[in-house]
Write the structure tokens for this entry.
Amino acid sequence: MRLAVRELRRKPLRFAVAGTALFILTMLLLFLGGLLDGLYSGSTGVLRSQSAQLVVFSADARSSLIRSRIDPAERATIEAVPGVERTDGLGVALVGAEVPGETNLADAVVVGYQSATASIPAPPAPGEAYADRSLERHGVKVGQTIGMGPQRVPVTIVGWVTDANFLLQSGVWVEPATWRQVLGSSRPDSNLSDGTFQSLLVTTAPGANPNDVATAIDDATGGKTDTLTRADAVLALPGLKEQNSTFTSIIGVTLFVAGLVIALFFALLTLERTGLYAVLKAIGASTRQIFEGVVLQAVVVATISFLFGATLVYLVAPLLSRALPFQLEPVRTVVTFVGLLVMSVLGSAISLRRVVKVDPASAIS
Amino acid sequence: MPAPENPESDDPVDEVSAAGSSVADSSTEQAPAEESPVEESPTDHKTAALEMRGIRKVYQSGDAEVVALDHATVTVAADEILALVGPSGSGKSTLLSIAGGLLSPSEGTVVVGGEEVTQYTHKELTSFRRNSIGFVFQSVNLVPFLTARENLLVVSEFGGRDKKTARARADLLLGELGLGGRLGNLPGQLSGGERQRVAIGRALMNEPELVLIDEPTSALDTKLGEQVMELIVNEVKGRRTAAVIVTHDKRMTHYADRTVEILDGHLAA
């Protein structure tokens, strides 16, 4: 082990090629991960910020908030289902927001809601809104009145919320009447009567099984509703699964390439060191001691490359997040690091066969 | 430098037999203790550093068999220096490799320091080499990124020995070898002779029963070669350790207590 560390310290340039490749791959992995997380959180904030266990859609809406309608009669039926503790209406309207002093419209989603959640305060007064902080990039300020939708329905921003967006549009959270007004002005065919929401958030009673309650709700409405758990409702958002699987595949391939780089580099290095390993074996080093040194070197090179790569990505992350749906999560960073470590161990393990095959007798010939 | 006198040159354990011949029983025909130049216990006299009996080594080359060693029998006493000379391909390196546990013989037995190692597993052979054998390789083969001191310490690190003791021994050895001021130098910063001396120190680091030295002067000029040989003899004799020196340079054989020739896998006294 000490031998391996000394080589790393005294001959760092020997590992520069692998280190540079892993540094670039680390940046690529974190960039892809940041994009995936940014896209995911930018698309799902409205549902993730809720605390209710279930989301009820109309059956013909195919789990789409925009297509779904739950009227007061259905809501009353749902509230009567055993295991339902409370319900809250939820609706969205995807509109452009006119910000004073800005030439371009900001993409926004007006969210009509009824109750506070862990991250969203209780609904403000009519004509007021809590805005997602992403609107700051579009020049929105607290106290400012912005115009929502084609009729520029005025909404005054009274505070900020975070991670509260939907389908990559910035959340503007309002009480239900203001939402209905904006929705009706942007899509006259979508005028909703008072009490009607696009979906219903259902909080289940303590001890109730949310899946059982979901089935009971759909039975009680005679199949007019489609009730999903909140996690399933998030995944049912258009394109989300495909987006996740595409990025996850690319990240997986990139990690594989990292493993391949490590495997090839250390295979070559082991080949180059065959003579040295023969001498070390001759003077009493075991295959295990030599192999542990190879793995240690791979892990150290991967760790140092990761630290440099991650530092650079964290430094440029604020710039990236202004232009792209980029969000670097600590969990993503840790998972990427662990993935790289695993690939460094697996990659270097390819050299084991060659280390085993080194014949100490070749030191004397 | 004159060749050192071997006080046990008449000892039957010094006998080298050609293929198939027998070796006298060292336990019954040991030289008297009073004839020894140093104080030794009777056990020291009885235990030869190396006994190789009827060693045969056969390699497969396609369908053909290549006999590298043919029933070679040799014994090296506990503080004896044996020179093994022979042309290229004669089996010198094979013999050295088998003696040092780098190769296993096809037939025969190998006993080092009274311990039969013939049937040792790879793992046991590794441990045996680590604890009982010192090697000086033809091309020195120091670890290029380790200092002179670290090249010695690496031996004790593989064996998990006490660091402080190992460091003291490394410094002592290098001091004796005239490298006290070069402890922190990398091999690239040392001359050829200095590198050879570090290699000798490394071979002695684990206090071996037997030191195996492969062509120690092949890369050195005559003067430097003689200096290195003197150093080897002094260090090995000073520690009452046995050594086998493989060389093709017959000018160097007078440094050994005894010379054995090897030709086509056969040993001749």
